[in-house]
Design brief:
By secondary structure, the chain is of the alpha/beta class. It has 18 helices and 18 strands. The strands form five sheets. Strands 2-3-4-5-6-7-8-9 form an eight-stranded parallel beta barrel, surrounded by seven helices. The chain has a three-stranded antiparallel beta sheet with strand order 13-14-15. A three-stranded antiparallel beta sheet has the order 16-17-18. The two termini are 47 Å apart. Bound molecules: 3-methyl-2-oxobutanoic acid (KIV) and zinc ion.
């Protein structure tokens, strides 16, 4: 059976989703979960793009041992040097060089001719190979490139030492049959193709990213680029969970082997959703919350008799359990640590202590705290360095009613200095945000506000994700509490702490 590799670019292409900004600490947590799931190659960032991406690549490089860690780089020595420095501690480093190959990109973006692009690509791969055993080359916008030029380019970079050549459908333009034909064309016309693996990278602008990836696998692609939950530029990338489950459920059809432990899918999907602030639609294939819920009586009857009537795979395949062990207010630190491990988190002592204290506070107000709620609580603390250097909420008080203007009073501490202020607003949350703005005294505006109950029931934990605008950038924040006003304040302060941290550190 043929084996293919999964290249996960959630932390690089996925992080390019408009409004998403995953911190380097959060990226490390996700990278460790991806490694645990058996993902072959993880791309935590683009080292030359920002200090935060550089840090994400080096943190993952230092801690991930089993998966290959890749850094993206443009075809120039500066970018390659940055990748080299960031990957210095990696056990299995990969340099991922890209340059655009389509007429429209070469003319309007690069202002380069085919010959110049060819020379830059070959030179970059040659330079990269001085420092890296494993070099991947991507011809950006390959599906709108001249096929003969694409083949010449691939032949040149393979001769220069590239072991993987990627054919990205950068703008989600190609159709499945057409993509399969293109793979066949490359296989038949690149003379040295037997010395390299063919990779594919699909965007979802026409909703075909997964279908195109699967067509490419059928045509001989050996590596598929994906992102968890399909996040990414514009309409996103091919969703990892969809590609992996199509190949798993329909193994009879594809006859392809994968290294991924599909039972990790549900957990990683939730982690990425929380950390990116990108909610999963209930009907999302594989990981949506409706996937194992049957509404019609006829379907319910069928599933009770035999789940195979309406379920093409059991929930356990993706790590969902129908019954989970619940923790409550009497659960101790040990049980909590066990649960954190079971949920896939590798927490250091300090983060574990803080998450446990938060769990205890929440458990004191409700009977049981489910797995999903515990995962949300823990994720709140993963970004510890940012939380530590930013504002801390000392106390808040709000008042509202039908016959009064909502008011909020708040005290925040930063660098040992406490500041207190009060404000009015259109409701207690708006008033609290106004009071925070007065204390922080920066030009910050609320861009997006989202609230959801983590589980069903009157005592569910409320999770708030906000996006704020500061200095022309968008930053996300996340907060959880049984009290939605507290969750809102936490998420707003969290977003402000990120905004200030990134603006000071980049
Ligand atoms: O979409 C694309 O072309 C990319 C490349 C950098 C691989 O993300
Ligand atoms: Zn891409």
């Amino acid at each position: 059976m043929r084996q293919i590799k999964i290249f996960d670019t959630t932390l690089r292409d996925g992080d390019q989703t408009p409004g998403v900004n995953i911190s380097s600490r959060q990226k490390l947590e996700i990278a460790l979960q991806l490694e645990h799931a058996g993902i072959d190659i993880i791309e935590p960032g683009f080292a030359a793009a920002s200090p935060s991406d550089f840090k994400a690549v080096s943190l993952a490089g230092a801690q991930v041992r089993n998966s290959v860690i890749a850094s993206l780089a443009r075809a120039n020595e500066n970018d390659i040097d940055a990748a080299r420095e960031a990957l210095a501690g990696a056990k299995r480093p990969r340099l991922h060089i890209f340059i655009a190959a389509s007429p429209v990109h070469m003319k309007y973006k690069l202002n380069m001719t085919e010959d110049e692009v060819y020379a830059a690509a070959v030179e970059a791969v040659r330079y990269g190979r001085r420092y890296f055993e494993d070099v991947q080359f991507s011809a950006e916008d390959a599906t709108r490139s001249d096929r003969n030029f694409l083949c010449r380019l691939f032949e040149g970079v393979i001769d220069a030492g590239a072991a993987t050549v990627n054919i990205p459908d950068t703008v989600g333009y190609i159709q499945p049959r057409e993509y399969a034909e293109l793979i066949g064309f490359v296989r038949n016309n690149v003379k040295n193709i037997d010395r390299a693996a063919i990779a594919v990278h699909c965007h979802d602008d026409l909703g075909l990213a997964v279908a195109n990836s699967l067509a490419a696998v059928g045509a001989g692609a050996a590596q598929v680029d994906c992102t968890v939950n399909g996040i990414g530029e514009r309409a996103g990338n091919a969703a990892l969970e969809e590609v992996a489950m199509a190949l798993t459920v329909r193994k009879d059809f594809y006859d392809i082997g994968l290294n991924i432990a599909t039972s990790e899918i549900s957990r990683i999907s939730k982690t990425v959703s929380d950390m990116s602030g990108m909610h999963i639609p209930p009907n999302k294939a594989i990981v949506g919350k409706n996937i194992f819920i049957h509404e019609s009586g006829i379907h319910q009857h069928g599933v009770l008799e035999n789940p195979e009537t309406y379920e093409i795979f059991p929930p356990e395949t993706i790590g969902k359990t129908r019954n989970t062990m619940l923790l409550g207010k009497l659960s101790g630190r040990h049980a909590f640590a066990e649960k954190a491990r079971e949920l896939g988190f590798s927490l250091d002592r300090e983060v574990l202590d803080k998450a446990f204290a938060s769990f205890k506070r929440i458990a004191g107000t409700k009977k049981v705290v489910g797995d999903e709620e515990i995962a949300v609580i823990i994720r709140d603390f993963v970004d510890q360095s940012i939380l530590d250097s930013g504002y801390r909420i000392d106390m808040f008080q709000t008042q509202s009613g039908s016959a009064m203007k909502a008011t909020a009073m708040l005290s925040l501490t930063k660098d040992g200095v406490s500041k207190c202020d009060a404000a009015i607003g259109n409701g207690p949350i708006d008033a609290a945000f106004n009071a925070i703005n007065k204390i922080v005294n920066k030009d910050i505006s609320l861009f997006e506000y989202r609230i959801r109950a983590v589980t069903d029931g009157a005592d569910a934990l409320g999770e708030v994700n906000v996006k704020i605008k500061y200095e022309d950038n968008i930053y996300g924040g996340h907060g959880v509490s049984v009290d939605i006003i507290e969750a809102s304040i936490k998420s707003y302060v969290n977003a402000i702490n990120r905004a200030l941290y990134y603006s000071e550190n980049s």
